Amino acid sequence: MELKDLKGKRALVTGGTKGIGKAIADELAAAGATVIVSARTKPDETTHHFIAADLTNSDQVTALANEIENTFGGIDILINNVGGLTTPGGGHSTLTDAHWHQELDLNLIAAIRLDRILLPQMIEQKSGVIIHISSVAGKQALWNLNMAYAVSKAALNSYSKALATELADKGVRVLTVSPGATRTEPMVKFLNDYAASAGITPEEGMKQLMAQTGGIPMGRMAEPEEVAQLVHFLVSPSAAYLTGTIYAIDGGSLPVVS
User: Fold this and answer.
1) Which residues form a coiled coil (predicted)?
2) What local confidence, expressed as pLDDT, does residue 88 receive?
3) Cα–Cα distance measured from residue 110 to residue 80, given in angstroms and rounded to the nearest whole number
4) I need a surface site. Which of 68, 170, 216, 246 has the fewest CB within 10 A?
């Protein structure tokens, strides 16, 4: 029997049409929530209410918020999942101002922009949960692969903590989930491209990348559904006393205590 602990809740999952975002959307819907998903383009099929939006465009964020308000009267759960590694590796000399702005806009400012426009309704109803999907890269940057991305995720972690502190006495909880290597289409493409550029197999490429980070003690990547299950718990009533914390889901790969 599925746990319907989110019955009556309205949830928005950005980037909710594939990968981790889709897994989260499906998980929350299975728990009883009414789920809205957004992405730049509409998928071939989805069982959730879809709203097209480019969250790096402030006008489209406003239109998204207006449609949610007019159709659903607001939301109770916001999953800021939009993001990604879009800039080249190679270190500081390969990254232009445009690269830095692009990565920060997608991985940090998009979440800030959406939080700002949806928070007044959450504060007014004195309840709500915001989850920022970050990355273990925010605590373990690889200069030759993901410098700008890692910096943007570290900034998201800091912003999320500050926002959680601001909203703690207003009934709104804010948490951060930081996946490690997860078996998604973008991750598979990244591994294939990395392997091709190095003239090695994807399996060898994975081993090389994991060697830079100390490996994954559990010996495999996460499945998107495993990340979704963690998110489900964090937005549920069972996690009512949790706010301001970063939860790594990485198979034990982060070689740090925190």
Assistant:
1) none
2) 82
3) 8
4) 170
